[in-house]
Design a protein that fits this description.
- This protein is α/β, with parallel strands linked by helices and 449 residues long.
- It has two domains: 258 residues, Ribonuclease Z/Hydroxyacylglutathione hydrolase-like (Metallo-beta-lactamase, Chain A, 4-Layer Sandwich), CATH 3.60.15; 183 residues, Rossmann fold.
- Helices cover 32% and strands 22% of the residues.
- It is built from 15 helices and 22 strands.
- A seven-stranded mixed β-sheet has the order 6-5-4-3-2-1-22. A seven-stranded mixed β-sheet has the order 7-8-9-10-11-20-21, covered by helices on one side. The protein has a six-stranded parallel β-sheet with strand order 14-13-15-12-16-19, with helices on both faces.
- Helix 4 runs antiparallel to helix 9.
- Bound molecules: zinc ion.
- The site of zinc ion has 4 residues, from loops.
Amino acid sequence: MKLTFYGAAGEVTGSKTLIEAGGRRILLDCGLIQGEGSDLRNRAPWAFDPKSIDAVIVTHAHLDHIGLLPRLVKDGYGGPVFATEPTREISHIMWEDEAKVRDEDTEAGIEPLFGQEEIDATYRLLRGANYGESVRVAPGFDVVFRDAGHVLGSAFVEMRVDGLTLVGSGDIGNDRVPILRDTEPMAEADAVILESTYGNRTHDGSEAGREDLLRRALIQTAERKAVLMIPAFSLERTQEILYELNGLVEGGAVPKMPIFLDSPLATSLLPIFKSHPECFDEQAKVLRAMGDDFFSFPGLKITHNYRNSLAIDKVKSPKVIIAGSGMMSDGRIMRHLGRYLQDSNNLLLVIGFQGQGTIGRQIVDGAEAVMIDGHTVPVRAEMRQIESFSAHGDRDKLLHWLKSSGRTPGHVFLNHGEPEAAESLAEGVRQTGEAGQVDVAMEGKEYEF
Ligand SMILES: [Zn+2]
């Protein structure tokens, strides 16, 4: 079996792994590279011929795992794309949203990476599978999707070919987050491709701590008559924040104030969440059975168009604004940051991973000012992080998950992590003896085992 990493090697975006085994060429994820300088890289010629691929498997619907699929199809791929059913449904919305963002390219006279035609063509290639079901993706190549507990529909995949089992972790979720089930145990595997986003970090805070931090932030926002900004990833983190707010508001634990969901993408994903209760954890299932729609509670206001978003400015504080993007690199949160970040009375709640080169990362690293839309904005609002909301498992979780199969894999490849995180996790895996051999994946390098 041969593996080649064409992305997410030494970085956290652009997941693309070519698996060659049993005379087949399978692509695991086909993600967009994000962050500074990514546009050129996303437009670079393919390192492999798209027409030579027999099947594509996608782990979940984040753009850094699915975002380049329509380009793959545009450039000649016409085979099947396998995913879980929620991932299939979410992908279409994610691509359309990305294409909308990239409309600016068209206006600037640059050919967009992909358009509606490619999105629709790619969607037609998607086949939705159930968790636990064995799916033949190519002759002699079987795959089972298991719940990764990362976002709705997320999976790690067990791939069986040539008498070997390879596990691709995709992104591994944090335990005890709202709505989702915890990550299923890993299968006995000969080799594992393991993400390492938080390979050098341990999240602070517990489940109870998370709710308490959120509750206190809301109470202080009310007391100070402040603005609480929550930049959130549109898929999963936003829905989880709504779930927690639903409990706090309906339980009377926080003062009444307007809570704006200013994220068209997150809003358009709500119906998909509601239509997949089979993916919920026990607590979310109980709430649903009791008739509680946890995406609806007193004070929640959803902005359906840009005019509604602008109108938030006129609403008196205290108020809460939940908006994307989660790393504060674009989206509606930028306008709110430009307006409210400079006031020391306000609060900024950071709940997710902040990648290198993003404004979110600058703020977390203590920047005194950031550039937003060409203007210097002083960072005076009080910033707090709630790591226990993170979408990714921390170092302990990743090591524990690796151990969960009960059999030490012969080979572990670490991808999807900045170099320090991946190296640190590699050291951890070596120390705990959880693999025969550990490699930090390098871009373009072939690994044979
Ligand atoms: Zn992800």
